[in-house]
Amino acid sequence: MSDSTPNVHEAITNGDVPDIHSKILASEFILLSTSKAGESEEENVGALTAELEDVEVLIAFTSEDNAKAFVDEMDDLFAEDESVDGILVNGSAMLEYMPDGYGLLLDPELEPCSLMKPDVTASVLAFQP
Asked: What is the Cα–Cα distance from 108 to 15, expressed in whole angstroms?
């Protein structure tokens, strides 16, 4: 993981869109994907999302340890027959595949945790080439 990753939380807290964009691009993230036994890869497409404060958010983690801690702590969210996989992505790929109208929830249930609301996410995405 990139040494600058922890600074993403600070950039989001400060609301500095250009800084958020550059910090995300300089970082790697873990996205979670779930699958059930017997599902084909075509049925198991997409990263974990949630609804928080009436907005849809993509859930991402700044390290494998943080993703594992979340899965361990929130194991009641996942069915017994579901497997949870971590997907390492660079910041550019995460932004490229960010669903329209979504925010970003970074390191949920952990400290620090950051919520980037959809309007901020849209502003960050506007910096993409």
From this structure: 18
SS3 22: helix
Task: Choose the CATH number for 6-121 among 3.40.1350, 2.60.98, 3.40.1000, 3.40.50.
Answer: 3.40.1350
Q: Report yes or no on whether pTM surpasses 0.70.
A: yes
Gap between the Cα atoms of 63 and 85, Å rounded: 13
Q: Report the residue count for the chain.
A: 129
Contact (Cβ atoms closer than 8 angstroms) between residue 46 and residue 101: no
Question: pLDDT tens, 31-78?
Answer: 998 877 665 555 555 788 999 889 999 999 999 999 999 988 887 777
